[in-house]
Amino acid sequence: MKLKNKLLIPALILTFVSIFSYAIKRDTYPKPSPNLYLGENNKLLNIVEQSVDTKKIVEILIGSYYHPSGEEEYLKNAILELSKKILVKDKRWVNIYKEYSNLRLTPFQERFAIQNNDGQLNFSMTSDYLSSLVIRLPATGKYIGKDFSVAVQAHLDMVLDHEDGLKGDELRKLYFNGIPTVVDSEGWLKSEGKQRSIGADNITGVAELITFMLSPELERPALELVFTSGEEADWHLEKHHGRSYLFGARFGNLQLTSKVLLNVDSSDGPGSATMGSVGGDIQTVKSTFPAQTVNADEIIYDLEISGLKGGHSGKDIHKNRKNALLVLSKILVDQPVKLIHMEAGAASKSKIPSQAKAKFVLTSKAISKEKLESDLSKKFVLLLNANDEVAGPSEDSPSVNEQVQLKLENVTNKTIHGFKSLSGQDSKQILSMLATTKNRVFKYKNNGHFPHGLKSSFNYSIFRLNNDLNESQFDLQIDILARSLVLSEFDELEAYLSAHIKNYFPAKLTRVMGWPAWEVDLDTNWLAQLVKSKMPFISSIKATNGGLEANMILHNHHTNLGVSMPLGAVSLAVGPKIEGKHSYREKILTPTINESFTQTKSILKVVAEELVLKQQ
Question: Is pTM, for the whole model, over 0.85?
Fold first, then answer.
């Protein structure tokens, strides 16, 4: 056998081992034990013997149970253990199945139920550990024997963000042991130390559902407490009516019986309610560019922008929030640069990027670091203080704050050369495309029901330019999240984005996934009319995004949520006062937590009375 043949098999084995090791390293990271928050470690169990307080439950959940999307089973298992203790303590419940004592949410587990001595279904779950958990509570007081229930729903998963711009595994592992929090002098609950998202969206809603479980003395109709998953995740695909929607490869499909859904996933605070849901599409842009070798005498810089407000790509998109990717592009576009690397955005496509960075070659040796830094800083400040070209009102103007910063570093002498770069022309085209893009608010709608008249928008969520996979070329990928109240609007949005991008460089645009819009007429919807006529504690009702998962459940789709409702069901969204959703500045105004639960109880009472009348 020739020498090269003898070396071939070991080389192949080594290559396979390397690839496999890389895959393992890439796809795994330190995780807590599945039983970490169960048994004696389940801090939720301690509150069974105490007076119920929703604010306290929120603090416990944030301090111990916050996990990234896709790992909701930790919190679900804790809720199941809590359910068991409540049921065992409450002597009314009998006939508990033996399987219950060994219950863990594991894939493909059978559904099961707990019944009381009247045979009434009390508790059920779906078969997949990432699908929804539904706990059914029987009616109390004067509603016993009434043939209806009301669903109350919150989602278990959360968006992660950190002020240092961390992402991926590096960021996810920070949440396994909960988040240290502090309440400031104004009553805002937020993270302590380095700022990070705290799961206010939607751990506060989860706390309200748990409060119902712990409050059997409340007079209320029968409840279906719906804990959903995957609302903030990168969703799975399933074709539906010829379009790719936000429908997922989850195995459960639980049918609710309620015809009213109260979604406790709003952030406007007590006194406000929303209905409807903005539909969305995710567009992925991909392109490739030839790579050049960076010469040893070329000057290399790192540029980073951080500390912008960021925020929710739907709720905050009409405000004068700056997208860090677009800001970085606008301050670099007129400079003589060749890009080596550029990125913005983290794991979630539903956030406005608050950090962006680039590594580049400065092709003009006549420009000193001091002059470059001065030029970039001046333009940076001008951009932050300028109003974006929005057609509607802006709530944040200017968006400068004490934490925003631009950092420029000459890394030529600190870096081993061997980098590849784009050509100056390709770099210019990419930066120009971003710098000249139409404002993220695409259209407004002249209708007093819609806050700010916002109709459709898009957000450059995630941007990656690198040559990690093939040294001879650069790979570019941009994820754009488009939202609209009108389904047909997405075709127009896609046409604009495609034409704009292809005006600068060849690219492939793919509509990856989406979800339908739910537009509500507040003048005809019976639940909206009930709010206006019989709920004086709600001073404002808006027809806008009232919870994505509520929309999916309500429209009776088989979704990644695994839950659907009867056709003709209606929904209303409420919640405490939350600011900075989907950003590291996320915070909850603590007095509004218990106020929100009081409002939820009041809504249930009014809805129950109306349903009683409808049955007569």
Answer: no
Q: Tokens 């739910």 correspond to what residue?
A: 518
Q: Using DSSP bridges, classify how beta strands 149-155 and 222-228 pair: parallel, antiparallel or unpaired.
A: parallel
Tell me if 576 sits within 8 A of 592, measured CB to CB: yes
Neighbours of 594 (CB within 10 A): 18
| Cα angle: 44, vertex 84, 203; to 5 degrees | 35
- Please count the residues of the chain: 616
Residues 6+ away with beta carbon under 8 Å from 599: 270, 271, 537, 538, 574
What are 502-553's pLDDT values in tens digits?
999 999 988 776 677 777 888 899 999 999 999 999 999 887 766 677 777 8
Across 225-260, b (16+ Cβ under 10 Å) vs e yields: bbbbbbbbbbbeebebeeebbbbbebebbbebebbb
Asked whether 231 and 548 are in contact (CB, 8 A), the reply is yes
Distance (Å, whole) CA 123 – CA 84: 10
Query: Mean pLDDT of all residues in the chain?
Result: 78
Contact 224, 213 (CB under 8 A): no
pLDDT in tens, 42-71: 778 888 878 889 999 999 999 887 777 667
Q: Which stretch of DSSP H or E encloses residue 10?
A: helix 3-27
pLDDT bracket for residue 115 (50, 70, 90): very low
Q: State both tokens at 496.
A: 């604009």
What's 437's DSSP letter? P
- pLDDT digits over 474-484, tens only? 999 999 988 88
Closest-CA residue to 467 (of 365, 339, 579): 339
CA distances from residue 251 to 76, 102, 561, 563 in whole angstroms, order as listed = 17, 22, 9, 10
Helix (H, G, I), strand (E, B) or coil at 267: coil
Q: How far apart are CA 450 and CA 445, in angstroms?
A: 8
Q: CA–CA separation, 570 vs 553, rounded Å?
A: 10
**Is 51 in a helix, a strand, or coil?**
coil
- Which of 440, 469, 438, 470 minimizes the C-alpha distance to 454? 440
Q: Residue 187's Cα: distance from chain center in Å?
A: 25
How far lies 550's CA from each of 8, 284, 560, 573, in Å? Answer: 57, 26, 12, 8
Round to the nearest angstrom and report the end-to-end CA distance of the chain.
91
Residue 236: pLDDT band with limits 50, 70, 90: very low
Three-state DSSP class for 153?
strand
Q: Which of 109, 132, 34, 124 is closest to 74 using CA atoms?
A: 34
The Cα–Cα gap between 572 and 527 comes to 8
For residue 567, pLDDT beyond 80 = no
Ramachandran assignment for 223, one of left (phi > 0), alpha (psi -120 to 50 degrees), beta (any other): beta
Q: Is the pLDDT of residue 105 over 80?
A: no
